[in-house]
Amino acid sequence: MGAVIGMGVLIVVGTIGLGAVIVHRLAHGHIPSATVAATELALSVPAGTQVRSVTAVGDGRLAVQLHAENADRVVLWDPASGRVVGQLLLSSQH
User: Fold this and answer.
1) 18 pLDDT exceeds 90?
2) CA-to-CA distance for 15 and 84, rounded, in angstroms?
3) Strand 62-67 vs strand 83-90: parallel, antiparallel, or unpaired?
4) Given this model, what pLDDT does residue 30 score?
5) Angle of CA points 45, 40, 63, to nearest 5°
6) Across residues 28-38, what is the average pLDDT?
7) DSSP codes of every residue in 50-92
8) Could you read off the pLDDT of 2-12 as tens digits, one per residue?
9) What are phi and psi of 86, to 5 degrees?
10) Cβ distance 77 to 62 under 8 Å?
């Protein structure tokens, strides 16, 4: 008997919660996600260089990991200005 009462309470609480969410969304409206226009960006790299990964870091900058035969590097690139703002050269020591 206690389980039936518990399930009834859960149904009522769930229905009230769902109604509250619907009322909240209707009252505040839907905020559309930002749309970004497609643009073509270019990062100049030496021939034969491969992009290993691209990771977003703060302020809209991208950390681009590049692989080349002689050494790998990570480039901190600002796509808004098209400038490389920093580089980390990863070379192996023999």
Assistant:
1) yes
2) 54
3) unpaired
4) 65
5) 50
6) 65
7) EEEEEEE-GGG-EEEEEE-SS-EEEEEEETTTTEEEEEEEE--
8) 899 999 999 99
9) -175, 155
10) yes
Higher per-residue pLDDT: 11 or 93:
11
Q: Is 42 within 8 Å of 53 (Cβ atoms)?
A: no
Q: Is the pLDDT of residue 38 over 90?
A: no
In the chain, the largest separation of any two C-alpha atoms, in whole Å, equals: 77
**Length, in residues, of the chain:** 94
CA angle 24, 30, 36 (to 5 degrees): 155
Q: Check if the beta carbon of residue 61 is closer than 8 Å to that of residue 77.
A: yes
Q: How confident is the model at residue 91 (pLDDT cuts 50, 70, 90)?
A: confident
Of 42, 48, 60, 57, residue with least CA distance to 88: 57
CA distance 19 to 47: 59
